[in-house]
Amino acid sequence: MRIGNIDVIDLRSRYPSNYAPRELSLINSLSIHHSVNRNMPVYSSTSEEIRELDLIHAYHKGKFRGIAYPLVVFPSGNQYLTGDWDSIRYVVGGQGNVYTLSVLLHGTFIDEDPGQIQLESTQELLDNVRMELMKPQIPLYGHKDFVRLYPN
Fold first, then answer.
1. In the chain, which ranges are E strands?
2. DSSP notation for 77-97
3. CA 21 – CA 97 distance, rounded (Å)
4. CB under 8 Å to 115, separation ≥6 — which residues?
5. What is the C-alpha to C-alpha distance for residues 101 and 32, in angstroms, rounded to an integer?
6. Nearest-5° angle of CA 102, CA 106, CA 108?
């Protein structure tokens, strides 16, 4: 699947969900998250990464309506499309969910930062998402910023 000028691994059919629909024109921000899962090595295989996505999907299916993050980047730099952009995903809480498209960086970054490969791959993905949405200046926020932007 192409997003802008890059190919991403399309797993949407693997992770069905029943989130409410939205118009893509409503997206006015990008949000970034970390999975708080164990950090995987840069050399992890695609099948190991998909197993991790399966775990996230199972957890989110129990709490929400399926995997919440439509875009995921692993330490290897692999980029995955796990859900449709035209659905309101439960990622930031409240009304913020209507207006944001979220990107998940796999790993926990409480004690260490993401690696260079993951950061570069994430930037490449964000640039191409902006291109695909035709919104080159769309802002990027962290999860915690949405409490301030969209108080409940």
1. 2-3, 6-7, 9-10, 29-34, 71-73, 79-81, 100-105, 140-142
2. --EEE-S-TTB--SSS-TTHH
3. 11
4. 42, 75
5. 9
6. 110
Cβ atoms of 139 and 68 within 8 Å: the answer is no
CA-wise closest residue to 98 among 35, 21, 44 = 21
Question: One digit per residue, pLDDT tens: the chain, 152 residues?
Answer: 999 999 999 999 999 989 999 999 999 999 999 888 878 889 999 999 999 999 999 998 888 888 999 999 999 999 999 999 999 999 988 888 999 999 999 998 888 889 999 999 999 999 999 999 999 999 999 888 877 776 65
- Strand 100-105 and strand 71-73: the pairing is parallel
Q: How many helices (H) and strands (E) does the chain have?
A: 4, 8
